[in-house]
Amino acid sequence: MADPKLVAASYDRVAQAATAGAIDDSAPYRAYNNFVKRELITAALDVVACGARGHRSTGAGEGIMVRVLDIASGRGGDMAKWMQCRPTSSSSEAKRLVVAAVDGYDISSESVKEANRRAAECARRPVAGGRQPPRFEYRVADCFADSFWNDVEQQALSRLDLATHHAASFDGPPADAPLPPGRFDIVSIQFALHYGCVDVASLDRFLAGVSRSLVPGGCFIGTIVDAVELSRQLREEADYAAISSHTGEGLPPPSASSSTLFRLCPLDPFPIAPAVVDRDGSTTAAASSVGVPTGSSAVLPMGFHYRIRIDASAAPKDAAAPSTESLVDCDEYVLPSDTLIRRAALVGLLPCASSTVGGPMRNFAMYAPEWVRHSATVALRRGGRSASQLSPDEQRLVNLYCSFCFVKGVCPPSADVSHS
To answer: Which of 26, 29, 211, 362 is in Cβ range 3.0-4.6 Å of 347 for a Cys bridge?
Structure first.
């Protein structure tokens, strides 16, 4: 597992740089990432609408409360998405959905401070239709610590907005009573699973917590590093380094090696043989040794240790320009998609395919057609140019990630619960 103190320090720097205006939030790759997250949130709301039941109504004929657990919530950048995104379904349940509360947890104290500042501003803004804005509240926590899920449950029990689940006089169970499951309709974790899930055991613990916290029909969404694309890019880097060291020739580096935007650094020796997916969903290497395997398409095994460094700003147009200070500089671990799917199923989290997310796992590159159309529409509305064009460095970075969408055992695994 990545050192929590180092991860916290890295994202504290991000928050401080953002406050100082050193991060270009308008960079195309950041806008692309936000577009993908909007698609995921929309899909999650459709999943919730599919499994909605009247017991979550805020009152006779009124909205159906949606409660969100936002893990690794950062600086609260998804706040507007939770307020603005709507289900695409035309069902009566979809029309009545209201995101009422978002509880966010992040390891960075600076990020949480900024998120709560934004939440305070949000609470003062009027919301379309005269509705009350959602309650946003953010706390500092190590989301992969053994105590995390119990802390989440205890906080949820103290919430006044959970009164719809209990009698008005409910004071909470005794301290030693087992905690009831199903406090949230959506659990979201963006760009973080690869920090804490280093083996099957740690992944199972995390997924069990997600499943316990979701209501039946609830949705689990997020983004992780795409193990296939990561393996390809890491091997490309290693191939270049190995050839250069053996031949002494001044070969032109691959584009990632000359990138001013990000760097990938393997910290484990490459396995010689491709990874093998076991029956339980875990991945192991048939043999391991220092060196570069000949099969460039082989997926690295679960828990393979690497580091990614992402700079503060978007890639400069001039490839020879000096890099800015690396802000995101964290150890990460390979989490193959097939392992995530198989282990999630064991705790009742089923793959949910929809026309928004295109399946349980979807590489960010596959969102490109929708992104281009979205960018063109926004540009037309604002009378400006489309920001859909990604630089080569940005494209490589975007391609490193994939989205996922699971439902807690109500909607059929292949149900199209998004766009009609």
So the answer is: 211
**CA of 241: how far to CAs of 66, 247, 251, 399, in Å?**
50, 10, 10, 22
Distance (Å, rounded) from C-alpha 387 to C-alpha 24?
Answer: 13
Between β-strands 214-225 and 97-106, what pairing exists: parallel, antiparallel or unpaired? Answer: unpaired
Residue 236, pLDDT score: 83
- Specify which residues 361 forms β-bridges with: 404
Angle of the 200-213 helix axis to the 337-345 helix axis, nearest 10: 50
What integer pLDDT is reported at residue 62 of this predicted model? Answer: 65
Question: What's the rounded mean pLDDT across residues 384-400?
Answer: 79
Query: d(Cα 296, Cα 318) in Å, to the nearest integer?
Result: 30
Judge contact between 186 and 69, C-beta under 8 A: yes
Q: What is the pLDDT of residues 333-350, one digit of tens each?
A: 999 999 999 999 999 999
Is pTM beyond 0.85? Reply is: no
Q: Which residues contact 119 (CB under 8 A, 6 or more apart)?
A: 76, 79, 136, 137, 138
Q: Compute the average pLDDT of residues 130-135.
A: 80
**CA proximity to 283, closest of 268, 269, 304, 264:** 304
Helical residues (DSSP H) of 20-60, grouped into ranges? 28-50
What pLDDT, on a 0 to 100 scale, did the predictor assign at position 414?
Answer: 42
CA 358 to chain centre: 16
Give the pLDDT confidence score for residue 55 in this predicted structure. 44
User: 307: Cβ–Cβ under 8 A, 6 or more apart, which residues?
Assistant: 264, 265, 267, 329, 330, 331, 332
